[in-house]
User: What shape does this take?
Amino acid sequence: MNHVFSFARSLPLSGRIGLGLVLFWLAVALVGPLLAPHPVGAFVDQDVFSPVTASFPLGSDYLGRDVLSRLMWGARYTVFLGAGAAMLACLIGTSLALTAAVRGGWVDEVLSRAMDTLISIPSKIFALVMVAAFGSSLGLLLTITAITYVPGNFRIARALAVNVVSLDFVTVAQARGERGLHIALREVLPNMIHPLLADFGLRFVFIVLLLSGLSFLGLGVQPPHADLGSLVRENMSGLVDGAPAIVVPAIAIATLTVGANLLIDSLKPVEKQG
Amino acid sequence: MSAHVSVRNLRIVAGSKAIVDGVSFEIARGKVLALIGESGSGKTTIALALMGHSRFGATISGEVLLGETRVDQLDEAGLQALRGRRVAYVAQSAASAFNPSRTIMSQVTEPLLVHRLASKADAEVRAVDLFRALALPFPESIGARYPHQLSGGQLQRLMAAMALITRPELVILDEPTTALDVTTQVEVLKAFKAAIASVGATAIYVSHDLAVVAQMADQILVLNQGRTKEQGAAEQILHAPTDDYTRTLMAAASPTERSAPAVVAGDALLKVEGVHAAYGRLPVLHDISLQLARGATLGVIGESGSGKSTLARVIAGLLPRSAGSVRLGGEELPKGIDGRSREQFRRVQLVFQNADTALNPVHTVGQTLARPLAFYHGLKGAEAKAEVARLLDMIRLPADLATRNVRQLSGGQKQRVNLARALAARPDVLLCDEVTSALDTVVGAAILELIDELRRELGIATVFISHDISTVRAFCDQVLVLYGGTAVEQADAAAFARGVHHPYTDLLMHSVPEMRAGWLEQAVTRKAVLPSEVGDDLCRFLPRCPVAIDGRCNAEAAPLRAGDGFALLCHHELQTLRELTA
Amino acid sequence: MSGSAPHSAMFGVLPLIGKRFASALITLLLVSAVVFTISGLLPGDAAQETLGQSATPEQVAALRHEMGLDRPALTRYFAWLGGIVQGDPGQSLVANLPVREVIAERLPNSLMLAAFTALVSVPLALAIGIASAISRGGRLDRTLNVLTLTAVAVPEFLVATLGVLIFSVKLLWLPSIALVSEDASLWDTVRSCALPVLSLSVVVIAQMARMTRAAVADQLDRPYVEMARLKGVPFRRVVLFHVMPNAVGPIVNAVALSLSYLLGGAIIVETIFNFPGLASLMVNAVTSRDMPLLQACAMIFCAIYLMLVLVADVVAILANPRLRAQ
Amino acid sequence: MIFTRRSLIGSGLAAAGALTLPGIGDPARARPRQGGSIRVAMQSSSTADTLDPAKGAMATDYVRHFCLYSGLTRMEADLRPRPFLAQSIASADRITWNIALRRGVRFSDGRELTSADVVHSLRRHLDPKLGSKVASIAKQFAEVRADGRHGLVIRLTGANADLPAILSQSHFLIVPADEEKPTGNGSGPFRLADFRPGVRTVVTRNPEYWRDGEPYLDRIEIIAIPDEIGRVNALLAGDVQLIIAVQPLSTRRIERSSQHGILTTPSPLYTDLIMRQDQLPTGNADFVAAVKHLIDRPLIKRALFRGYATIGNDQPIPPFHPYYNPAVPQTVLDLDRAKWHVARSGLKGVRLPIYCSPAAAGSVDMASVLQEYGAQAGLEFAVNRMPADGYWSTHWMKHPMSFGNTNPRPTADLVFSQFFRSDAEWNESGWKNPRFDMLLTEARAEADEARRKELYGEMQQLVHDHCGVAIPVFINMLDGHDRRLKGMTAIPLGGLMGYRFAEYAWWDA
Assistant: This one.
């Protein structure tokens, strides 16, 4: 805990706000479902799109379900699915990028072409085909969203890696006789961490957006559960009345994604602490 | 008569740290003041303050007077009107100070245009005049080029043209020749001096090189850590310094000859024979051979582009040779990195010129040094830790530096760590590529001493690559002079000192500034005698050679002429050369 | 120093275009193979989808034969490939029209939507990006940062629907659906596209603005910027005449990537506004298992993406004299 | 219009005569006037949009086809067919039918419509290459032949009293015999002006329509806005004047606008839960009974459909249907009874996926409701939402539990024989009941109305008691329209007046 506090103190104000938001949503994602006043699919309100009341702190949704409870569950999907897919995308993209940059030549060419192929297939249509072919599951959603953002991460990571590879210390490592794996992981990768983190933050936002886009196309988390984007989507008819059922999830998405990026943006390279 | 430029009690603060503190000076109209000091002394910061500019949000206080104008009190508009019109700036690296995407002409004439001092056509006429005055080639058409198409020396002169085009009252030259080869430096210095004089401007010359300053300055101000150490007329500072720090600077500037060049007899440890190498289709090394015994030092000199760094890369295997052989202890080394054994890697270690980029900025000193220990010797844990401590001790750095990140080190410390990393492998051959060129003189001298000491203690054979002929002369057992990828001269230290040299070596030696006023005026820049291009087999130096023989040099390859402990490639007889280069 | 031979921009660009063209062909081939493979995983085929639930097995068999779906997959793929090589993308299985005609109907719409969006979003994104780069770390920068992030994260359908509620339902200023047809006047077409363009812009502006900011901020740290300031060049002029020519490469690249999204990624906007574009055509092709049409759409998206990237590279090269001369 | 006595018996209708259909909110006196141009937003359109009535697959197709072509009979709001292009349609044995055609009807290219065209239009369904949507229904046409220029004879493979109703479907609209495939050249109220599959259809008034003074509108543009909220917005923004398939949640918005109204059509449309009888554990009779008692029908009616539904009783005939059997006891939510059935079935704690999809309206939310109550009775249901794409071919009827969705059929016979007969292709639950099959064949041929109602009544009881299909509610169809659009009434065969609004609607500007 002390670590968190001293870490928080080292951040600028925007970073502290970001950290606060991220921790808040992380907490909601972790323990929210335990604290939710109602089961996620329970039809508890006679009316729909109720405003904020004592029994329904965030109102009720289009079927008369408790928005607070649904939000607490939904945060879990968005946070973990979004972060998981972003991590997976960055992991794959960066690994391939490092391979391309360190090996160069035809390996680079083949990987770059493969990424071009992937990037030029519209992601939502790709998702549509995959879900139609394999059925909808969390694993598949994770895979689709991750695959969709691999090429973007690859492009950025490759550009960074090619820059780093041209630096002297990589040549030094080559002259020392180091294998490609060591060069990629120990010499090159650590020098790309910060821009990669920033990219991760942005990918996270895009994935949250893609997930909500998929919910629009009827793909996405299985009911009665819903991620934050699906919560917005399923309550669209409450938009005219400004029902909390749609406003609250929308705010949740904004605070979560902006918070994550504020935090990441404020993580300047280590020299600050020196 | 009041001074043209007057600075009183200048104090520049960045964050909570004063970079410049209590500096005062005056310059009379048309005179040149030199600001001298090592990196971090605040000399550039002071120079920029005269234009009301500070980097990294530092705040300027004190009084800066240019004629009647209080520069320190000008607002943004006032500064804009001042800069480029009354005060002009020549930056250290013209290569990065020119905008890579715009033509030279548009950038040189820009000060005139933004200050509405001339029409575009007039501005271009004035620019061409200046190009001519600065002895630039193709003055009519050079303006249409882009920065990357020009050499460093040309860019530096163009930068001067850009500064002088508005005929400013004050020119600030910030280490304008540091990045240049010595031979180019002479021409550039001459051009600057003449051009500034013709405009009649007052100048501030920022430098760390005392010999250069001696040529340019009327007055000198010596700085250390943002404070004035000594200030006075150039003559007095250079020849009768009163401050200890000034004396240290002077001492470091003239390297002492090494006590006894310990020529170690025995079989050659490193043997390079008939090596050729090329980047793609562009040949860079042509038939290079050399031999190096255990504990011996070979100095490789040449200008930028001579192929001297390439030679190190070819030996290390980073650039596979296209022909020839490299043997280590009788064993032929594979051409490139692929196929070399870990032991072969260990025995040849390369130390890069720029420690800033040669050290991985994310690693600590300890991690940097531990890697070769683990990699070559399998040392881990406490053992490795002890060895790191020993290495740090060897390079005269405190052991607690091991936990420090390399980014937090000073330039000299970085270069020592850079060296220690190579030593950690316990190599047989150490390839040092311009290891001191990015360092201040004092720090560089210390590094040299260290290398020399280690070489003697550990018996490591060293290839010492440098553009600085005086360092090489003082430091090495053998000298190899490269020009255009060809070895034009090769000699042992004694023979090299005796003095028969290839015309190119001769040019290099005479281009090194001496620390006396008036050297620049005497230094003769001799023109090439034959207008010609390089043929494949002809002497590479021919296009610049002041003593080339028509009908021979431009007709056939130069013959190898060997003497006592030396050999060179030239059409002239050794005797003739002795006379020509005397 | 190089000789005085005049450098022609084309020298640098032509081989690049040639090389790209070759690798584009390979990429297109890859895309077609990938699309063919994954669409092969889809349950059902065009015959079944066309006939629907009520089909008798004989009907399905007859239609399958008619459509040529009873041939092995590889045979169909190579037949299709052979057609493409001769410039014929085949016959749409479902619409019973040449694929060329079906696409010719939609492609101009998609391109028009993309062009309008680009017209609106690129200048705005550049302005935002440059403004925040100039005030790096300042209040404006931070505000724009949060705003662009929020804009990216808000679901497109929410933006689109909000736009409709405000501008169509409440204010009655703009049509809520895109009525794109030949007999519509230019003014009507522009009005029709206003809301789709708005919705698409929100997403891409943020992306491009962030990349622009990064590219410009990177250049602002370069020594030549300080040099220009020290020449007395006003800051505005420094940004426009010194920084922009150097930042244009990465910016154009980001713009190209974002613009490629405008075609395939417009599916949600096309759905909400009933916009007859290529993305909904492609979704159509997926649901009706109309392989020739699906393949053709994929080819077009891929080709446009590659073309945009190529254009971006060429622009980057033309803007950079160093690359230009290579 | 002449109805013979035989035809009255044959079509199973007790009374003839035109009913006046009161429009919503407009006084009966208001006379339809001509003119006006409207735009209609449907749910979906794609490259599969067609001008061929035989291939009509979606509401958008039906609307287009009814605009362009005319049929032999027309179904009115009372669910009884009237002769239309046919002047009379009669049969003595309900096997051989004689049809006399109206004279002087012309296609829009000016050629007269004759018996040859009708023979062609009916026979073409039997060609498997055509891919007719009603091929299986058309199979009962043993013979279709012309009987003079304006008469024809249809001989069926078995007795069927419902032929006039069957012929009222859009698929049996009459197309010209001399065209290889239909191009929009028909004898309907409108003529084709523009047709872009997946984009729009524009039709303009047919000045030579054979029904004098009709139609009323000058021009109709048919587009599709798949997004329901987008559709409602387009209506409210005035960009379209009529929309199909309004969600119950959106009715409030439309009703709040003084310029717009809702047309509610109670219909036999239902979304049903299928429990396969040939698979386990759903084949267990107690399991089926338990599930039927776990369905909170009033909740589904209230929460999912905001009251725009009629509570169903696990059989396909809705209470407002002439053949409805009120004696079948209503199944209600009864947790105790459900638990008892679960205990008896020995399936307590069983974990079972329910496949649902947006393709079957309301099924996803129905599955969620069932999941809630299932948990209370010891049945653990997992909701598997599948994309609409591919749902019917891959999931529907393929799992122990899935959802289906059945559109209104013109006759009770059609829905029973297509979905409940033992050998029906879409016998969703795979139940087999010989008694039911026998009753079905008997009812089809039966001419006596009272007897027929009795037979259908028993079939409803059988389905309710034994079939593995649960029908929680019948869903009202909701259309939204501009209040200036008059003449709109409910015809329970589908939205937009059974897709035939173009023949009735008029613009009161």
